[in-house]
Design a protein that fits this description.
With about 400 residues, the chain is mostly beta strands. It has helices at about 305-315, 345-350, 375-405, and strands at about 10-15, 20-25, 30-35, 40-45, 55, 65-70, 75-80, 85, 95-100, 105-110, 115-120, 125-130, 135-140, 145-150, 160-165, 165-170, 175-185, 190-195, 200-205, 210-215, 220-225, 230-235, 240-245, 250-255, 260-265, 275-280, 285-290, 295-300, 335, 345, 355, 360-365, 370. It is found in: Cytoplasm, Cytoskeleton, Cilium basal body; Cytoplasm, Cytoskeleton, Microtubule organizing center, Centrosome, Centriole; Cytoplasm, Cytoskeleton, Spindle pole.
C-alpha cells in the first residue's frame, strides 16, 4: 500500500562510505549534504543528478561530527584523533586543524552568527573557539565523565551539553558559568539540542527515552518511550512543532510536540541509526547508520517556507518575553509507551521507483594549517582572565579607599 501524499517519502539512497555513518548536516541552501563516518572520511554530496561526490581525507581516526557554518562557506568536523578541522567545502578542500582536546572529540556546533564554534570531548570539557581569529577562547569544565555533545542556543547566549555523568548542563556564554543542571538516575543523554525558539531542549537517551525540558521553568515537559533501543540523535523541525529521533533499534520516529504523541515510525535502515537531521527549511530530512547508507526523505507532512519560519522564531529568542502560543507544550510530563496509533512506513516494501545514488567520488587530500593549543596555553588563558578580574577588583578597592580618606 503506497504512502499518502502527506506522509514522509524516501526519495534517494546515497552510497560511498565504507563504514557506519556517524553524523550529517544539510548545507544552508539545501543543495548539499555533508556526512561523517567511521571510515575516517567526510563526504560532500550534491543533490544534482549525476553530480560528483567529494571525499575529504585528513582525519586519522573515526569522524564523529560534522556541521556547516551558517553561511555554508565552512565545514567543521570532529574526530577520535582528538582534533577539530575546518574545511572549505569545495574541490580543493583546504582545511585548518585545531588541537586543544586531550581525548576524542565528539561534537562540533557553530553559533547562529558563525562567530564561534563549540566542541565537546571525552576529556570531559567543552571548548569554545573564535572562528574569525581561528583561536581557542575558553573551556567549560564541570562534567565528571565524557562530554558527548554541546550546542549553542539560537541567540548564542547559552550552551547546552550532555555527558556520560548523566547530567545535562546549561552554560552562560558571558559568565562562562553553569546556570542550570538536569540529572537522570537511569541513563545518560547521547545527544541534546535546543528547540528553534530557544525555550526548550530535547535529549536523546541511552535508556531508550526522548525528553523535552523547558529551560525557563527547569521542568520536564514530555517524556517519550517509543524506542526499544538507545536513542542516538534528535532533530527539531524548523517550525518547532515536530521532533525526529534516530535509534539503535533501527528506526526513525517522528513526534508531534504540540499534541504530545508519536505520529510516524520509519523503517529503511539495516541496523542501528546513528544520526538524523532536518534541512534548514524542513522540507527534507536525512538519516545514516551502521548500514553505511544515507537515506534522503521528503518531509511532506509540514512543509513551511524557511524564511517565514526563521522570521517567526527570531521574534521569540528572548527568554524574558512572555511565552508564545506555540511555545506552550502540554504542562505535565507525558510518558508514551509506543502503543499509540501511528503510521509505519517501510520504504523497502512500498517504494518501487527509488533512485539509488552511487556517484563518482573524488578524493581530496587536505593540506592546511594547524592551530595547536597546549594545556599550558589554556591555563595561561584562564590565568589571564583571573588576573584581569583581580586587577579590576584592586582598582575598585583603591577607588573606595580614596573616597573614605
Amino acid at each position: 500500500m503506497a504512502c499518502a501524499p502527506e506522509d514522509p517519502v524516501l526519495e534517494r539512497y546515497f552510497k560511498g562510505h565504507k563504514a557506519a555513518i556517524t553524523s550529517l548536516d544539510f548545507s544552508p541552501n539545501g543543495k548539499h549534504l555533508a556526512t561523517a563516518s567511521w571510515d575516517t572520511f567526510l563526504m560532500l554530496w550534491n543533490f544534482k543528478p549525476q553530480a560528483r561526490a567529494f571525499r575529504y581525507v585528513g582525519h586519522k581516526d573515526v569522524v564523529t561530527s560534522v556541521q556547516f557554518s551558517p553561511l555554508g562557506n565552512l565545514l567543521a568536523s570532529a574526530s577520535r584523533d582528538r582534533t577539530v578541522r575546518l574545511w572549505i567545502p569545495d574541490k580543493r578542500g583546504k582545511s585548518s586543524e585545531f588541537k586543544a582536546h586531550t581525548a576524542p572529540v565528539r561534537s562540533v556546533d557553530f553559533s547562529a552568527d558563525g562567530q564561534y564554534l563549540a566542541t565537546a570531548s571525552e576529556d570531559k570539557s567543552i571548548k569554545v573557539w573564535n572562528m574569525y581569529r581561528q583561536r581557542f577562547l575558553y573551556s567549560l569544565c564541570r562534567h565528571t565523565h565524557w562530554a558527548r555533545c554541546a550546542k549553542f542556543s539560537p541567540d548564542g547566549r547559552l550552551i547546552v551539553s550532555c555527558s556520560e555523568d548523566k547530567t545535562i548542563k546549561i552554560w552562560d556564554t558571558t559568565s562562562k558559568q553553569c546556570v542550570s543542571n538536569f540529572s537522570d538516575s537511569v541513563g545518560f543523554a547521547n545527544f541534546v539540542d535546543f528547540s528553534p525558539n530557544g525555550t526548550c531542549i530535547a535529549s536523546a537517551g541511552s535508556d531508550h527515552t526522548v525528553k523535552i525540558w523547558d529551560i525557563r521553568l527547569n521542568k520536564l515537559l514530555q517524556h517519550y518511550q517509543v524506542h526499544s533501543g538507545g536513542v542516538n540523535c534528535v532533530s527539531f523541525h524548523p517550525s518547532g512543532n515536530y521532533l525526529i529521533t534516530a535509534s539503535s533499534d533501527g528506526t526513525l520516529k517522528i513526534l508531534d510536540l504540540l499534541e504530545g504523541r508519536l505520529i510516524y515510525t520509519l523503517q529503511g535502515h539495516s541496523g542501528p541509526v546513528f544520526t538524523v537531521s532536518f534541512s534548514k527549511g524542513g522540507e527534507l530530512f536525512s538519516s545514516g547508520g551502521a548500514d553505511m547508507q544515507i537515506l534522503l526523505w521528503r518531509t511532506n507532512f509540514d512543509e513551511l517556507n524557511s524564511k517565514d519560519v526563521l522570521k517567526r522564531n527570531l521574534k521569540r529568542l528572548h527568554f524574558d518575553s512572555p511565552p508564545h502560543l506555540l511555545d506552550i507544550y502540554p504542562r505535565t510530563p507525558h510518558c508514551h509507551e509506543g502503543k499509540i496509533e501511528t503510521v509505519e512506513i517501510n520504504p523497502k516494501i512500498e517504494v518501487t521507483d527509488l533512485r539509488t545514488s552511487t556517484p563518482p567520488v573524488v578524493d581530496i587530500l587536505s593540506f592546511g594549517s594547524t592551530t595547536t593549543v597546549s594545556i599550558l596555553e589554556q591555563r595561561l588563558t584562564l590565568t589571564e582572565d583571573k588576573l584581569k578580574d583581580c586587577l579590576a577588583n584592586q582598582q575598585r578597592l583603591c577607588h573606595a579607599m580614596r573616597h573614605k580618606m
